[in-house]
Amino acid sequence: MKRFLKENGLALGFGLIFVLALVGQSFAGHAVFDDEQVSARLEPIGYLAYVTSSSFAADVAENWQSEYLQFFLYIGATIWLVQRGSPESKRPGDEGPGSDADQRVGRYAGSDSPRSAAAEGLRQVLYVAAFDEQQIIDLQRPVTWAEYLLEPDFWNRTLQNWQSEFLAVGSMVALSIYLRQSGSPESKPVGASHAHTGT
Amino acid sequence: MAAGRGAEACALLVPAAEEEAAENGGRCETGVLALGLPESGAVLDRQASGRAAFVELEHDTVFLAVSGSEWRVRAAGCVEQGDAPFDCVLEGS
């Protein structure tokens, strides 16, 4: 058991933080939903009703497709396209699906995550703008940046992104044990064993 | 509605729609009847998404909002206007 945990710490670790973020999102999302119900002078709904609603489902899955598209598109595109100077690219001349014995692939698994994280600042600008728009539509006072950090809406949107990124990176780590893509620098060589670790 | 049961109709409205109906006749019970909303008829189509639902009836189209464990009428007597929002006889937003 201890050995299993030690040898699968990466996938389990990401699985755990994914679940924690998802649970956090469900509480924050429920608080947002009921705040809006009260604003419209409607009755709040229960936690169970919220987590089984399409509102929660949409919030949970909204970013999944873009996260996976990001990975799959990148894996496919890097077979044929190169970018001089980029550590993520094969060298010019290596384009195509042919085997690349020199590629050092495992270390690139999940490397899309920091770039996604770098976009977080822009997203938060969009979040507060969207939140303020809704506030005004609801005839409520818009909030400042500092006030917004205390709003469940902020945590709902933030944890929504975090859990989807954790899930995507974690599952890519797990899938990369068994799946190969020849010609992609994101994959280990086709002939490498399942047990092969690192680059 | 045809039976003149205004109070029962008002109990199905969201608070904002109730107020809107009251503006038409002093009280919701009388105002909602004076609006001349069409008879509903059979349900042809219904779609719920999160807190909102759209119900197309034989002679009317209504928009609902979730309130606790129930659905309340947010807008009724709605007529489609192409790509523009529906034009509703009763609308509480």
Molecular structure report:
The complex is a heterodimer of chains A (199) and B (93). Chain A contains nine helices and no strands. By secondary structure, chain A is mainly α. The radius of gyration of chain A is 21 Å and the shape is elongated. The model of chain A is unreliable at 99-109, 113-122 and 132-141 (pLDDT under 50). The longest helix of chain A has 31 residues, at 9-39. Chain A has one domain. With 93 residues, chain B is an alpha+beta fold. Chain B has one domain (6-91): Nuclear Transport Factor 2, Chain: A (Roll), CATH 3.10.450. In chain B, 23% of the residues lie in helices and 43% in strands. Chain B has helices at 6-10, 15-23, 28-34, and strands at 43-49, 52-57, 61-67, 70-81, 84-91. Chains A and B meet through helix 2 and helix 4 of A and strand 3 of B.
Mean pLDDT of chain A: 73
Annotation, overall tally of beta strands of chain B:
5
- Helix/strand-derived category of chain B reads alpha+beta
Radius of gyration of chain B, whole Å: 13 Å
Shape of chain A: elongated
Helix/strand order of chain B: HHHEEEEE
This entry's quaternary arrangement is: heterodimer
How much helix is in the residues of chain A?
55-70%
CATH topology label of chain B: Nuclear Transport Factor 2, Chain: A
Instruction: Count structural domains of chain A.
Output: 1
What is this structure's SSE topology?
The complex is a heterodimer of chains A (199) and B (93).
Chain A: H1 2-7, H2 9-39, H3 47-51, H4 54-61, H5 64-80, H6 112-118, H7 120-137, H8 145-148, H9 152-178
Helix pairs in contact in A: 2-9, 5-9, 7-9
Chain B: H1 6-10, H2 15-23, H3 28-34, E1 43-49, E2 52-57, E3 61-67, E4 70-81, E5 84-91
Antiparallel strand pairs in B: 1-2, 2-3, 3-4, 4-5
Helix pairs in contact in B: 2-3
